[in-house]
Amino acid sequence: MKGTVFHGPHDVRVERVDDPEIKTPTDALVRITRAGICGSDLHYYHGAFPIEPGFVLGHEGVGVIEEVGSGVDRLKKGQRVVVSGLVACGRCFFCRRGQPSQCFESGSAVFGYGASAAGKLGWLGGEQSEAVRVPMADYTCYPLPDAIDDDCAVFLADILPTGYFGAINGNIHPGDTVAIFGCGPVGLCAVMSAKLFGPSEVIAVDSIPYRLDLARKLGAFAVDTETAQQTILDRTEGRGADVTIEAVGNDTALTSAIMAARGGGTVSVIGVFATQSFNFPIGYAFMRDLTFKIGLANINAHIPDLSRLIEKGTLDPRPLISHIMPLTDAPKAYEIFNAKKDNAMKVLLKP
Ligand SMILES: [Zn+2]
Ligand SMILES: [Zn+2]
To answer: If the chain, 351 residues long, is cut into consecutive pieces of 10 residues, what is the mean pLDDT of each piece?
Structure first.
């Protein structure tokens, strides 16, 4: 089959790779029909992590079950599913608590980075490919209702649950002001998710005009990075936002999110950081009585709720799609997404 193989910084190629096979009874094989390129893929694309090349990229996929192992109970051949970016068993201490990102059995395994993020599984395929082997398939795949098309469903594999997780961690109350730093695809998913909790206003912060336009279309008050702190103060009677969400994954945005929260407010971090540490303003956070929440989203646990919200029409992430390209154009798709060419927002691949 064909897959999008990481060869090194700024070098991904669509190549023939081994066809996936069932290896353990709880595996399923999924024929991919749509896959997303994610902001976190760009960390690898930039060479931010030293990593052995030669793996298939992609942790956001939708497809059709082609084969199931003898230990798979809930899935059938021919079923349309979204494949969570996160492999989780659904049965361990953490999964039962709704924390599949800490799954003890998979070791928090994530598709699309070869061995480096495969946790206890040793190796995982990627979803920017024609097919993928899905371990712990009963909880890693989620069957899709007909009302959710493939384009929409890709968002369930990672970034919509991630935005939702950011909103949940923000503990948003009706009437709150929520400020979201970063209007990339994840930040905009956070905008949509925050609105589910009844804030009086969502303020979206970015420095790129087309991203701010899209945030505005999704119902946010959009503001440029330069003037964000002052605007947030002006719109909250000088207090700061009740909740801030960091959706970039860099020090500047995180510092801004901390500084923009009101006394007693909550800072919720969903951006993926390539750096290992951060100069945390702990004295300031102490005096301001801030709550700080951070983590990898509990994707699998959020998919059922978000799927219902999409099915009933409450959520529709499709306005975020800027490009749908053939899988064979993956190198070009990475280039476009990386350079933010052509108003790139969410870029999808079609095998
Ligand atoms: Zn992702
Ligand atoms: Zn588990």
So the answer is: 96 97 98 97 90 94 98 98 98 98 98 94 96 98 98 98 98 98 98 98 98 98 98 98 97 97 98 91 97 97 98 97 98 97 97 97
Count CA within 13 A, CB hemisphere, residue 173. 4
Q: Which ligand is nearest to the CA of 337?
A: 1
CA of 272 relative to ligand 2 center, distance in Å:
22
Ligand closest to Cα of 139 equals 2
Around ion ligand 2, residues with a beta carbon closer than 5 Å are 88-89, 92, 95, 103, 105
- Is residue 150 packed enough to be buried (19+ CB in 10 Å), middle (13-18) or exposed (0-12)? buried
pTM: 0.97
Give the distance (Å) from ligand 2 centre to CA of residue 302.
15
Compute the distance from residue 237 Cα to the ligand 1 centre, in Å.
36
